[in-house]
Amino acid sequence: MLVLDGKIAAAAVKESLKLKTAQLAAEGKRKPHLAAILVGNNGASETYVASKVKNCEETGFESTLIRLSENIDEAALLSTIHSLNNDPAIDGILVQLPLPKQISEQKVIEAIDPSKDVDGFHPINVGKLVQGLSTFIPATPYGIMLMLEHFNVQTKGKHAIVIGRSNIVGRPISILLSSNVKEGNCTVTVCHSHTPNLKELCLQGDIIVAALGRPGFVTAEMVKPGAVIIDVGITRVEDPTAKKGFRIKGDVAYEEVAAKASAITPVPGGVGLMTIAGLLKNTMQAYEQRVNRS
Ligand code: NAP
């Protein structure tokens, strides 16, 4: 059984980006620059944004973290985005989700200049993804594809079961896995909360992508021997014995499923790290497109 270790695959992506950035510096060029907006102080969002900023620094990118109050109104957030859209020094913009209730996430997503939309959530970029055109692939599905590539996981002709159909993970990974690309060419079944025969479908899966946010949902009895398991789930589960008072759990019952699988991503240390790798790759892509246009 192969552990699809996100530390190893993400380090390889980061190393190649670091070399590219060092080369830019040697040529006297500016570095890629990511601006991250964090609204409020949700604990998980704070952790994710801090990690994104830290990874930018480690890769040699510039990063700017803009912290806004939980009570900020929508117009003020949109105005901040417009300033970043018009700032020639900024290559990529991300707004950490979720946002407070008074703000429409859809309006925020659509306010970001598609050429700086390194999260790949803008409808223009989603449309390009669906049509197989060059675009920013949302960071988590992109990270999964980079993981499959790194470990040379064969996907062509396989049956992939994707559990979850969100715009952030389930929907885009189902499109990518079914696309005519090297880590694609799967036959894909997309499952959601109205899928009645989930266990039977999962048992047919050569690849299972679990992205539903229910800790330990995928158990050994749902998995075909030799299947490849991609666990996207990240849920904080209370645990008074843990230093922080909680542990991070994936959507897969790791131990029992690992005993049956041919390959599996751990949580933590799997897809989460690859998400950051995907974001960094998108930021470099945004930078290169900007530099080539000017
Ligand atoms: P989401 O928007 O809540 O979507 C969850 C999806 O799972 C929905 O499509 C839902 O179906 C489906 N679902 C829920 N319960 C189900 C059940 N019992 N059976 C079948 N399908 C079910 O969540 P998300 O944003 O996609 O995130 C999913 C998980 O991935 C979360 O744990 C999240 O924290 C994690 N995540 C991790 C990363 C990473 O970097 N590793 C990045 C993003 C998200 P309906 O559509 O019918 O409601």
From TrEMBL:
The keyword NADP is annotated on this UniProt entry: yes
Catalysed reaction equations from the record: (6R)-5,10-methylene-5,6,7,8-tetrahydrofolate + NADP(+) = (6R)-5,10-methenyltetrahydrofolate + NADPH; (6R)-5,10-methenyltetrahydrofolate + H2O = (6R)-10-formyltetrahydrofolate + H(+)
Keyword Amino-acid biosynthesis annotated: yes
Biological process according to GO: L-histidine biosynthetic process; methionine biosynthetic process; purine nucleotide biosynthetic process; tetrahydrofolate interconversion
Pathway(s) of this molecule: One-carbon metabolism; tetrahydrofolate interconversion
Residues covered by the Tetrahydrofolate dehydrogenase/cyclohydrolase catalytic domain: 4-119
Annotated NADP(+) binding sites: G164, R165, S166, I234
An example molecular function term from Gene Ontology annotations: methenyltetrahydrofolate cyclohydrolase activity
EC number: 1.5.1.5, 3.5.4.9
Domain Tetrahydrofolate dehydrogenase/cyclohydrolase NAD(P)-binding: 138-290
Record keywords: Amino-acid biosynthesis, Histidine biosynthesis, Hydrolase, Methionine biosynthesis, Multifunctional enzyme, NADP, One-carbon metabolism, Oxidoreductase, Purine biosynthesis
Top-level lineage group: Bacteria
GO cellular component: cytosol
Subunit structure: Homodimer.
PANTHER family: C-1-TETRAHYDROFOLATE SYNTHASE, CYTOPLASMIC (PTHR48099:SF5), C-1-TETRAHYDROFOLATE SYNTHASE, CYTOPLASMIC-RELATED (PTHR48099)
Role noted for this protein: Catalyzes the oxidation of 5,10-methylenetetrahydrofolate to 5,10-methenyltetrahydrofolate and then the hydrolysis of 5,10-methenyltetrahydrofolate to 10-formyltetrahydrofolate.
Similarity comment: Belongs to the tetrahydrofolate dehydrogenase/cyclohydrolase family.
Protein name, as recorded: Bifunctional protein FolD
Lineage: Bacteria, Pseudomonadati, Bacteroidota, Chitinophagia, Chitinophagales
Record gene name: folD
